[in-house]
Fold:
Amino acid sequence: MILQRLAIDNFKNIAQARLEFSPKANCLLGNNGMGKSNLLDAIYYMSFCKSFNGVQDSMLIKCEESFCIVNASYLRRNIEEDLSLGMNRNKRKTLKRKGKEYQRLSQHIGLFPLVIIAPNDIDLIRGNSDERRRFIDMIISQSDHNYLDQLIRYNKALEQRNKLLRDGCVDHNLYMAIELNMAMSAEYINRQRKEWIERLSIIFNRYYNAIAGDGEPVKLNYESQLNESSITLESLFDGCRRHDEIVKHTSVGIHRDDIDMTISNMPIKRIGSQGQCKTYTIALRLAQYELLSEATSLKPLLLLDDIFDKLDASRVKHIMEIVMNDKFGQIFITDTNRTHLDNIIARTSGDYRIWEVIDGIFNPITPQS
Structure:
């Protein structure tokens, strides 16, 4: 899959941009705060209908403007496709594919697969379990719409159960009806997470070793209260009902799952250096890319946002060798260091575009000889 063109009006600090992209390497050079990451965010939004930074839609519209528009043209399975996003401060956002608006934005997820590697990926290691669940949910949802539907159903039922708890409801039948729906969805979600994390762990280990070298074994383990075949969500609810009534929230279920991340059989969160943690998250995202590519039969877009900071020259070199391999498709790279970008361009056999970004303006430039 290739993003051929992008037209932006009033997205963050980008007042207007009309860009045509290389099918392989697209490099954005500039100081921090100039708009490099904002362009990546616009591309990300067209795949996921939300910002990769998690900011509200109203904050994506340029200051003192009332709307923003993003139009994107793709080559997908050798067919040209157009997406159009419109946001207005006083109206709901709209996303159209081939001129037709989606009834539910969840229908769009996975059709234009994308992987981003960004500085806030450190939250996968340092953050709470929400970050790690969101990571695996995003991988699975892009290739399994039933998974996304089950996840939405579970979360809606979870909200209903928590409301009953907050309201002090004691009607056992109401709880049973909601918990039955949660249990049905949880069984499917648990099974898929277990399978995907096992596959992800193998690929992830290979990428970590390719970047860092052998000698630092890494592993992912899926932690869930439902991993034991003898345990059901209904039994967990029965055992924790009195506790949940006291604390007024649901304390058991797949919304408490986690991914245990280790290096040399120790938690990376506790012992990992900055370089190890950065390598760990990059290898995770590259493994995500490979899984998505296999599951969708498409090469996802790969966005690399300022990923070379805190890495030694050897690891940078190995990462560049990996992403310029034919296994990877179109990439978008931001950096403040021109040397990194020129080294990447040197590996593209002339198939590249590069822009200097200043205050949301994108000026094409040529590589240094």
